[in-house]
Prior knowledge:
Blueprint: E1 2-5, E2 11-15, E3 18-22, H1 37-41, E4 46-48, H2 54-57, H3 60-67, E5 71-74, H4 75-85, E6 89-92, E7 97-100, E8 103-109, E9 115-118, E10 121-124, E11 129-135, E12 138-142, H5 151-159, E13 163-167, H6 176-186, E14 191-195, H7 208-213, E15 219-220, E16 229-230
Parallel strand pairs: 3-4, 4-5, 5-6, 12-13, 13-14, 14-15
Antiparallel strand pairs: 1-2, 1-16, 2-3, 7-8, 8-11, 9-10, 11-12
Amino acid sequence: xxxxxxxxxxxxxxxxxxxxxxxxxxxxxxxxxxxxxxxxxxxxxxxxxxxxxxxxxxxxxxxxxxxxxxxxxxxxxxxxxxxxxxxxxxxxxxxxxxxxxxxxxxxxxxxxxxxxxxxxxxxxxxxxxxxxxxxxxxxxxxxxxxxxxxxxxxxxxxxxxxxxxxxxxxxxxxxxxxxxxxxxxxxxxxxxxxxxxxxxxxxxxxxxxxxxxxxxxxxxxxxxxxxxxxx
Length: 231
């Protein structure tokens, strides 16, 4: 299994027979080297969205259409995107599970917002979500954009994720210290990969506070763009 950061909150996850592009915002992403786009999306089987904001969904329909693969996410958002672009979609909702190339993907709750640019301003489309992705004897928790939630307690208990991909840059999501608290309070991660940071000056630039705040033995991996992390 390989997890590769695409900058900001974008990831390429190779698990079972699936290659999932999660929130692949590439165009205009200051962290992403535009000359490596083809490499980043090669062989993708699905595009998975956590919510509608442009720094997550901006390239989703273009990539899905170019590769001829489904756009997967909360029903309201992907149905709206299908109506705008005709791209193939697979919509489901919180508590639902879909199997993507042998990987089991369950949508879970998050605490944020979800709007997209429409012809007359912002349009509220669906709601924010996270995912539990299970396969190859691992379960990955993708928090999506969120703050700490009491729901994390049952999510951790039910799904037992060993890898956490946590939005932790602050300002728009929980910051590194809050992410550390959530990890320590609710989860039993072996590895945490922070995201939604370093992209803009308003966001945290290091994961020092996360590393300092997690339980002993938890490995915090600060990802580098397009450098795969293998499990």
